[in-house]
Amino acid sequence: MNKGVFRQYLAAFIASLSVLMAGTSYGWINPLLVRLLSPASDLPMTPDQSSWVVALIELGDLFSPLPAALLVDAWGRKPLLLSTAPMYIISWILVLTTRSVPVLYFVRILQGFGMGIVYTVLPMYLAEISQPKIRGAISTFFEGMWCLGILLEYCLGPFLSYQGLSWASLAVPVAFLATFLLMPESPYFLVMVDRPAEASRSLTWLRGEESTMDEMEEIEVTVKKEMKIETRSWKELFSTPADRRAFLIVQVATITKFMSGIGAVLSYSSETFSESTRSFLSPDQFTMLMGLLIIVSTLVASLTVDHMGRRPLLLISSLGCAVFEMLAALYYYLDGSGVDTSPYSWVAFASVASYCVIFSLGVGPLVPVLQAELFPSNTRGLASGITTITDTVTSLICMKLYEVIASGPGLYLNYLIYALFSLAGLIVMYLIVPETKGRSFAQIQSDLAATYNESRDLSDKVRSKDSNYTQF
Questions:
Q1: Where is the Major facilitator superfamily (MFS) profile domain positioned along the sequence (predicted)?
Q2: Residue 79's domain spans which residues?
Q3: 158-167: per-residue pLDDT in tens?
Q4: Is the pTM of this model over 0.70?
């Protein structure tokens, strides 16, 4: 690994501490719920209050993406990511110094607000600092660190007190703030705001070599072409067929990701598996094992995405999700119909665990990659904000419907719905998702435009030497 590649991975890892702190805040409450509902807890609360503590983080996440989308091209990627660290530090200080349910409500909203900013900005930063040959691998840091943050809370929660787990969680935003201050801003943003000298220094540091003139020229040509309209608006997201196609691809991929049920499957895994597998593992062990499988699978995805490509992994992953969720639906249907499934109770865990593995090899980590790659510079921020809202809304719908359906028609129907969404996503993505492996932002935009014979080619200099493009 040369110096430039190492520096890109280092900057990406440190930037991804932001999504690690979001993941720790998201997962923090789950291992504490049983204790908080106890009369002898540090902060006694009712079941209704605990449900609000769990859910309010999503409310904050819903309201911050649009402000972040509007500010990211004015303030920059780095300052906006840094602004989330004080939010989390303040929130953990409040947790440590107060014992009030209303204060905890505020803490969860504040953490959700920071989470929405991270979800909007971090994929852009990771993609913009990376060379095309490693952009896929670096962009998967987002999903991997998010899952690692949740897993850390599940692993530490059973062994630490309320105070101890909060102190451990506080360490993450402090570490992020201290280290990310030393990292460079995105060279694409610096060119966008007409700071070419700073952009050149940032790019030189990231590439680890003195001569970055060719890449710098390519960035300037790309940004100049894409920023030709000085006043940017929401209409620019849909101004051309290529823009509309990019938007459709990312929204379909996002809906497929979250309506495949990953949030509900993980949130209710302890309850579901403890019943269906006759408790050969404890509920906490089930959850930790699922988290570990997801992290290992995401690591495998990061090692293969720049070799196999985005498209094959997305399609294989979507098909696998549909197959394993159909299997889980069949098991739970038979189990709920009075059939003796006790000799096959392992099928429930095996099918859902296999779903989590195949999900994390493609659909899970690659949606943020598409989010950052497919949009041009003038709409990347706005599109990221809308995509974050899409994932929050679909995740909320999926989570809320899970318990309603499970207590009504039956658990099998949840998995059947998830399988159908995965199958529908597979068909649509097969028809519209292009391959972006190893291609610069300029080449990706040229490819999208070429589908409709548009004149968005960004110059012969940055045009791909090979004109291979899969037609759909």
A1: 11-437
A2: 1-183
A3: 888 889 999 9
A4: yes
